[in-house]
Amino acid sequence: MEKIKMNVPIVEMDGDEMTRVLWKWVKEILIEPYVDLSTEYYDLSIQNRDKTDDEVTKLAAEACLKYGVGVKCATITPNSQRLEEFGLKRLYPSPNATIRAIMDGTVFRAPIIVKGITPLVPAWKKPIVIARHAYGDVYKAVEIGTEGGIAVLQCGDEKKEVFDFGNEKGILQAQHNTDKSIGSFAVSCFEYALSQKCDLWFSAKDTISKVYDHRFKDIFQEIFEKKYKKAFEDCGIEYFYTLIDDAVARVMRSEGGFIWALKNYDGDVMSDMVATAFGSLAMMTSVLVSPSGAYEFEAAHGTVTRHFRKYQAGESTSTNSVATLFAWTGALKKCGETNKNAALVKFAQDMERAALSTIESGEMTGDLAGLFCADGIQVTKLGSKEFLQAIAKRYEVERAAEE
Ligand code: NAP
Ligand code: MG
Description:
alpha/beta
């Protein structure tokens, strides 16, 4: 069988610890035997970030914008303990934050659904993808703890009294956002909804926050009317705004299958709820979409340090590589779609199906073994590498059946 050719490279960002080990195996066992892989490689390991004074992270993000598609391995965000562990020159920021800032993107978190792992909300049959606005609001708020006095909000010449504390102690906070950032967020959401052929919901609290949240609602609506209404109609999908409390109630009653766009804080909180309800962090992917239409794919989990310590000690591990594999297949699919490479798209889809049917037939890693339940199917817990080999075997079988 001839390997599938790639006409345009994707940006490959290697990472740390257990996910770096999985990264190599996913490529060796599931991708390189079938695809003549073309990547521009950036080593984002903590050692190389330190060596390059974090320049490599910036170059990788710029390459994502240039080539349009990137795939990233999980990476260590250093804290004081890591500073000591690796003898770092300084505490580097989270690579994800650096990449997000350069790509000006929005993060979409999507669960991978598999038969046998039932969401805690039984009505949910399809993924619920959370789009979180990752700029401003309470994350960039200015706060004061006061002993009393009159609080005033001022910008330029405009001034408003917030509250007269008198002699009472209290607290106050000022939040901001910019039309530009909200607009980029909206564009990323509309673009992603079109690429996924999925309805888009946006919710905030504009009835209470008549200027702040209302501006979000207006910007979304204006961009939708001007640029996306027709495309959504042609695609057969819908955009609507609803109050956040109404959205929460609808989400619980829904069967899933939509993108839920949320302001920064709401997205932070709701994404953890939705991820937990869908089962396992190891079955959650994350896609960063820039308003210019560049995509960066990754697993939502971290470098799985606890498993890596066992691996280093020569012990066997059972680490789930599904989200890492889906980051790769997501990137290859996107690259195939934009560059009219149908064989690459088909490969990615077939490989995803092979991974899911491997689990559905009872072969899985330890994190899923305890959650899996399907009539008449015996669960076999596999090691990290064995699980990838089982997927490869199934991919070969399914492909042979097709021929
Ligand atoms: P983590 O790597 O996500 O792992 C937390 C725990 O979740 C693991 O110990 C494991 O539980 C379970 N788990 C996560 N992924 C799994 C998988 N693929 N298969 C099986 N189990 C899985 O989070 P962390 O331990 O808090 O963070 C480790 C490092 O990752 C940190 O240095 C952090 O900075 C970094 N991090 C990076 C990213 C990113 O690059 N996007 C995101 C988050 C964290 P059990 O141990 O119970 O089996
Ligand atoms: Mg959170």
